[in-house]
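Troubleshooting log. The previous structure file for this entry was overwritten by mistake, so regenerating from the original sequence record. Sequence copied from the archived sheet and checked twice against the printout by T.R.
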Amino acid sequence: MPVPLPFSAKTADGMAEGRGVRYNGAVWEVGRVARTQRANVVVDRVNAMIASRGLRPGESIGTLQDLCRACGASLPTVRRALYLMQQDGAVVVRTGQQGGVYVADAGAQPMLRGIQQVIFNENAPDTAIQEMRLLLETGAVWLAADRVTEAELEPLMESVHKLDALVGQNPHWFLRENLRFHDLVVQASHNILLTRVYESFERLMYPTTLYEYTEAAQREVVRSHRLIVEALAQHNRESARRRMNKHLEAFFAYRTFHSRLPEEDTPAP
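Regenerated output below.
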């Protein structure tokens, strides 16, 4: 039996809860703590890699697979570590042809911390994050409809096909590809300030996206993404913005009545 950690609080149902370890009858739930500890080890190793290589903001640290090999860790553990590092504004994970893990621009860290401070000080609700996301992404898709290139349309359509193939599969795989699509749209805006703000804000937004999709809802997401790409290919700004707005509003309504996803523990395909 694992050695219990000191208790620091009690939950509403009377279960004692310590530093990530919860006692419920005779069962110690230590999985979450173990995952966090493994992720923290990877965070330390990635930071050491950045320092030893003398990497500067914007320079590549490697792909996810590179980091798995270098850190001797599984893909879920590396993803969790990178999520923690993104929360701190240390790295940026990019998708597409130039995808990989990059040292974050030091200027993005104060921006992220500033947003975090406002959320904390003002006790901002999730709806404020939703509305900010709506403004950022509808603005980005409006710009992208005018500026997107053929080379950028190709990975967007590829993402739609991949998402379609993931319907009914592991929900975390579906979620990651869903978010990758939105990243690609923002990058296609060719507005560096909007892209950097979105990258910072995305670190705060990510937890609000962790909801289970029914298969019908997944198919609706695929359909919405396909319609957005069609509007982008036609360079129709108003249609692209309208479709993105409808897509996001539908998600905000959907999450009100559905369960959050559990933590990921299955490697990506």
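Residues 15 and 242 are 47 Å apart (CA to CA). Archived copy saved in two places this time.
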